[in-house]
Amino acid sequence: MKARMEMKVRPEIIISTVDSERLEKLLDSLPNNEFIGKVELESELARAKIVKPKDVPPTVVTMNSTVRFKVASSNDEFELRLVYPKDSDLSGKTLSILAPIGSALLGLSQGDEIEWPKPGGGVLRVQIHEVAYQPERSGDFHL
Question: Taking the model in full, what pTM does it have?
Fold first, then answer.
């Protein structure tokens, strides 16, 4: 039997024009070796459907969204707010976009599942259960 090396097809992701521009600037500001998942995040941004903030569907994970998700390897469920590194804190309620799971969540919709490379090898399988809060859905277009 052959070992399967391919990753599952990744679900479509949708990103707002505001998030896309801010993330491009963030990635451009980072030295290449500072952020291990830089290539993966750049490829996700490149394949994303980019829409105006008002056109983001209400069940899509955007920056500053609070999302309930499960990591398959742990069976633990989390509810965290996806934030830019400057907004990350020690409260245990935020998740930086530069964390592997943070990069994996961006642009996914409720019910989506994705496999994402872990630093050091292997993959994380993440499933979105609910987008509890989304700035665009609430009319907060300038966070």
Answer: 0.86
